[in-house]
Amino acid sequence: MADGSEQPVSDGSEQPVSDDETQIRDLIRRWARAVHEGDLDAVLADHADDIVMFDVPPPEEGVRGIAAYRDTWPPFFDWQRQGAVFDIVSLEVAAGGDVAFAHALLRCGTEEELAQDPGNRLRLTLGLRRQDGRWVVPTSTTRSPAGGELSVVPSAPRSRGRTRRSAQPPGRGPERAPRAGGRERHGGG
Domain SnoaL-like, which positions (predicted)? Predict the structure, then answer.
């Protein structure tokens, strides 16, 4: 399950966890569950209006603003409905007074992709800040182990000078070479 309830989620340490760290873990698990369920409103709920997302596929300058971030998700949900999974495998959080960061390993892909490379994980790094008394995500970076692009659908067309992420948000399937017929695999937080 995307929220980590069926798979163990390690925090990577034996140190006591603060209330802030617990709140942030809960926020990230809610986000992952929303991604898994294709619930766009819940995916966006804890993200800052000024979010900057650097994702696996272009644009290299990132996706800026909540509206642009919102636009990246429908193609992923379309792909995911074809039987893909999106799970947090491990999650670590460090929180200060008003800022925090988290990093996670994500398992995302179709059964076929995961069977071909069962150990492949995407890397997710989130910056968080306390805003109006709650934690929000103003920055998200996702990368594949080799730093390449991955996906199951062709890239989305350029819009306003930027290429939107195609099929996959943070936690894409394993990296692959371009498909026959020139259709590349791309990924996309």
Answer: 24-136
Closest to 62 in 3D by CA, of 143, 178, 152? 143
pTM of the model: 0.70
Buried b (16+ CB within 10 A) or exposed e, 150-181: bbbbebbeeeeebbbbbbbbbbbbbbbeeeee
SS (H, E, C) 27-41: HHHHHHHHHHHCCHH
Q: What is the mean pLDDT of the chain?
A: 76
**CA trace torsion 73, 32, 106, 25 (10° rounding):** 140
Residues in the chain: 189
pLDDT at residue 58 in the model:
72
